[in-house]
Specification:
By secondary structure, the protein is mainly beta. It contains 3 helices and 40 strands. Strands 26-30-31-32-33 form a 5-stranded mixed sheet, with no helix packed on it. It has a 4-stranded antiparallel sheet with strand order 1-40-39-38, with no helix packed on it. A hairpin with a 6-residue loop joins strand 11 and strand 12. The protein is globular and about 95 Å long. It comes from Cellulomonas fulva. InterPro entries: PQQ_b-propeller_rpt, PQQ_rpt_dom, Quinoprotein_ADH-like_sf, WD40/YVTN_repeat-like_dom_sf. Keywords: Membrane, Transmembrane, Transmembrane helix. This is PQQ-binding-like beta-propeller repeat protein.
Length: 539
Amino acid sequence: MARMRRVEADDDRAPLGTDGHAADHLNDHLNDHLARHADGRAGGDPDGAPDDDRDDGPDDDPDGRRDRRPSAGRSRRRGVLPVLAGALAVLVALLVGQAVLDARQRARVAAWTELPGTVRPVGVTAGVTVGDQVEASGVFAVAEGDGAGVAGLVLARRTGDDGVRRVVATRGDDGRQAWTATLGSGPVTVEGDRVEEAGCELGRGPGAPVLCLVQDRVVVWREDGRKVLDPGSRAEVVAIDPRDGTERRRWAVPVADGFAALDDLVVVSVIEADDSVSLRAYDAATGDAAWSRTLPVAADYTAPTDALLSEPVSLDVVGDVLVVTWYLDQGLALVTRDGDVAALPAGTSRVAVADGGLRVLGRSGEGLGSTVRTQGDDALTVGGNVVVPRVDDGSLGDLLLTDAGGLTSWDPRTGAARWTSPVTPAPGPEPVVLGGVLYALQPSSLVALDGATGAERWRHALPEALTGTLLATDGRRLYVGAQEYAYGSEATLEAVGLDGVAVPVTLPEGAYAVEVRGRTLVVRGDSPDGTRSWVAVLR
């Protein structure tokens, strides 16, 4: 009897199935193979190989049906391959689609970080940390940085014991002094008087200079108010390179009551004898005169007295315009970079930037809390006080929000209410709009609302007994500052993702406030013994 051997399918053949046809085919295949093998061993081929040329007798499958019967395994394999190919194609498409979405999201976030009102990105490569504590006296700005070693410089204007006024730059990361620049000698003052120093500002844009108004005018604050002891006769503007403290330029200006950096200009203001305001603008790079304007006051203007402890006129830069405000909002004027003076409607009390444009707001007089929004020649009366987002990416279009009965969104064309949410924003911190979502800080929680419907998406509760005092964003996260409203209470800070997941940030002992200086988040605090105030940069 011939010895039986196990027969395996060829390497390129799939395993056979177990249905009836496949079983018959397997039996036929084995019998045929064994018969050929036995004939070869009996006397055919000495190596036992089958003789393909030999006539093996009558064909028991004359029509060849058995040999042409398809294998179930091969048939099943043919069905599996297209399925696998399709699944692979779907997987590749999903991966490619996700990569495209991730790339788009990264591009959106990159664009968000550059929006007006955002802070410099914090904790990009690691968690949010706090730099070294820097002496807080005289701090007026933190340099945003331009890739030339400027980022994180805390800038302060101080008068030394020798009476010399200087700008001192300290590195926010390690507390080391970077440079000092001399402005000039300070005035002789009476002991106990608080001297009002002329201002310093950091210009806008990469590489913009530090600009300081230096003059011999002496203004002090006493218990009975503001007193001008010496009107002075000399004033100049000093432009300083923020990278190393070198003096770029110095030029003479009139002795001034106000000072502001407007785009690439320096503007000083002088209050004339009739209470009108003279504005002089100079090129910050060259010191050359750009333009001058005189702004008359309203006929019913009432000048302040010293006892009211108020500035008669203030200069504020909003967007790319200069807002000149007279005492107690008795008048406003808008001045563009080119010196054009914009006429404002009667009753105007506030100017803000929203949707990348300017909004002029004022009381309508037609109802308690109603406001007027003016854009071009159109005016619209709506209920409540207008709420202007700190950051707005434009994803909600022309947005008009008020605090009427909660947070209300209005159609700026018709005045109809789009939606009203019971969310009442905390006084002070302004909302943030990113990607169609409105983030608003309530006194006890941070809330994300669908900007189109007002529906609540998520809510993050602040630590118990704390009240929200700051809402800022770098386009990647929201930064929420909070503290107790009690003397000596310490501040807290949380970094909250746009999905509502929060990470607490450890602040130094004695921290009492989190603020935004320019585009930089800083923490202010006192030493444990209360003898020194400090400021630290979040990084």
